[in-house]
Amino acid sequence: MPLKVGILMGGPSEERDVSIATAGSVSKACVENGYLVTEFSFRDNYKKYLNKMNDQDIIFNALHGGIGENGNIQAWMDNNRIKYTGSGSLASSLCMDKAKSKGIAKSNGVDTPKWQLFTNADDEIKIKLPFVVKPNDQGSTVGLSIVQNQESIEPAIEQAFKYGMDVIIEEYIDGRELTIPIIGNMPFPIVEIKPLHDLYDYECKYTPGMSEYECPAILEKSILNKIKSNTKILFENFGCSIYARADYILDRSGVPYFLEMNTLPGMTSTSLVPKSAKANGLTFKQLIAKIIQLSL
């Protein structure tokens, strides 16, 4: 009997379109692997699919951001004994909380840019310009601004508060953008991202041709080993499982600064995890099969 794989997609978050694109790619790979695929697309009410989801061998969680990535849906699936791909509820919730995950990184000796958490727009800023302003629990650079001068501070904070209850202000590090997937407990090749914009923003992430990628990234062995070792430490200390992707910025003196851990990284044609897997000899079809087998 072929494996029955349900694909959970859509959701109400700002990253809904990315989720639908991921689901399309994953669905195609699952069919190529000979699995029986059922797609579960929703905007608000995923609970209506309970019986049908219970009938699947596993749910491939193709959601991004919001309730699909912050642990809520994972907790609901746990309570209903539904098997799913990726990290559990606690690790998902922790990694969506940038300030909390940076705190754990710091306490484990992993460099991360200085930061300050804002719960309201009138808090006093203690980080020196230039800095980055972003919602504390969004992905895909939604609501993110790089602030270079005094006049841009207020609009950037207002923009970030539109997308979350808390806002994080983070020291701006000028350097190379790097990302590294970890699958099972094994770090995969590092990808260097060279966006056409100053920032690897939403457009550069999801528009083919708006960024160049180098994989494996050309790095000194000591830096490469440091990033791999830091990623394993974080994956373990955050309680992640199956797969995730860690983002870093490498400053001009060769120090890698941890930015965030993505527990449900994109799986589209322009996504970073498939690029890294390919450099490691895994086709997209094999990558999806590996994630499903590890999750089972």
Write the layout of secondary structure elements.
Layout: E1 4-10, H1 16-32, E2 36-42, H2 50-54, E3 58-61, H3 66-69, H4 72-79, H5 89-96, H6 98-107, E4 115-118, E5 131-135, E6 145-147, H7 153-161, E7 167-171, E8 175-183, E9 186-187, E10 191-195, H8 202-206, E11 211-214, H9 221-237, E12 243-251, E13 256-262, H10 272-279, H11 284-295
Parallel strand pairs: 1-2, 1-3
Antiparallel strand pairs: 4-7, 5-6, 5-7, 8-9, 8-10, 8-12, 10-11, 12-13
Give the low-confidence spans: none
Gyration radius, to the nearest Å? Answer: 19 Å
The averaged pLDDT comes out at: 93
Give the domain tally.
3
- CATH topology of the largest domain, anyone? D-amino Acid Aminotransferase, Chain A, domain 1
Give the strand tally.
13
* CATH classification, class level of the largest domain: Alpha Beta
- Estimate the helix proportion, in percent: 25-40%
Oligomer classification: single chain
Look at the helices and sheets and give the structural class. alpha+beta
Largest sheet features: 6 strands, antiparallel
Q: Determine the CATH superfamily of the largest domain.
A: ATP-grasp fold, B domain
SSE topology string: EHEHEHHHHEEEHEEEEHEHEEHH
Total of helices:
11
Can you tell me about this structure?
The structure is a single chain. The chain is of the alpha+beta class. The chain folds into three domains: 4-85, Rossmann fold (3-Layer(aba) Sandwich); 94-111 and 174-282 and 289-293, ATP-grasp fold, B domain (D-amino Acid Aminotransferase, Chain A, domain 1), CATH 3.30.470.20; 115-171, 2-Layer Sandwich (Dna Ligase, domain 1). Helices cover 35% and strands 24% of the residues. The strands form three sheets. Strands 8, 9, 10, 11, 12 and 13 form a six-stranded antiparallel beta sheet that branches. Strands 4-7-5-6 form a four-stranded antiparallel beta sheet. Helix 1 crosses helix 11 (284-295) and helix 4 runs antiparallel to helix 5.
